[in-house]
Amino acid sequence: MPELPEVETFARDLDAAVAGSRIVGVAVTRADVLRETDARGLTRRVTGATIEHCWRRAKLVVIDLSTGDRIAIQPRFTGGFLIDDGGLPDHERIYSTLAFQLADGRALHYRDVRRLGTVSLMSPTRWDEYASALGVEPLTPEFTPERLAEAVRGSTQAIKKLLMDQRRIAGVGNIYANEALWRAGVDPSRQGRSLRAPEIAALHDAVVSVLREAIAARGTSFRDYRDTSGERGEFVQRLAAYGRGGLPCPRCGARLISTHEIDGRATVFCAHCQR
Questions:
Q1: Which residue in 95, 135, 170, 208 is deepest, having the highest Cβ count within 10 Å?
Q2: Per-residue pLDDT for 3 more than 90?
Q3: For residue 66, how many other CB atoms are within 10 A of its CB?
């Protein structure tokens, strides 16, 4: 967490709120989140730049600057964003790691309780190099059943692990891998190479549908995630598998199994209807 739907929500909110704003200063309070730059270098390179566009790639919020540089923020477990128009309570700033001061008097904070997220500043060349190692975006036309088949073909790894491999498919994490596999009726421990064409097609549709629905619900607030307004994502109310170990399967009524044996992450599935 956050995964593709949560990061997409962040990016859309930020684009609507700060695109077109000019950065007039940077306050770095926790420099350990910085990558590929330091506090002085970040301040020097972004001060005076205009935020042109905020968007998502994989699990990154990408901020395009008028200088050509890109700020790439990976929120990981507890990262998030706050926009301070002067009325932000002091307690909301406690976990701010850095803040971009904007010309209109507002500040854009990146907050991170555990500081496991990262903030990178990349040149266009460095960004292209970094992004080229990421897999296909699952909500683009390029992500087809055939492309999914290519991503898992020949692999002896568990299909759940393959879905979360960012070099193969960008943005899918533990929550939505569990949900997509449940929807497709596929056992998460199955080797990728064992899936037949109809199963690949069903899994492709499940990945796309669960991600789109989660974006529409503004993400899943299972623990820490809040959007830029501090609101919880509502997709948690629609989870069929993740976080429901021991409860009845919504499809067949059998008890859902929870295990950490597949990839070291919490995996929840129905042994009765996921084959």
A1: 170
A2: yes
A3: 12
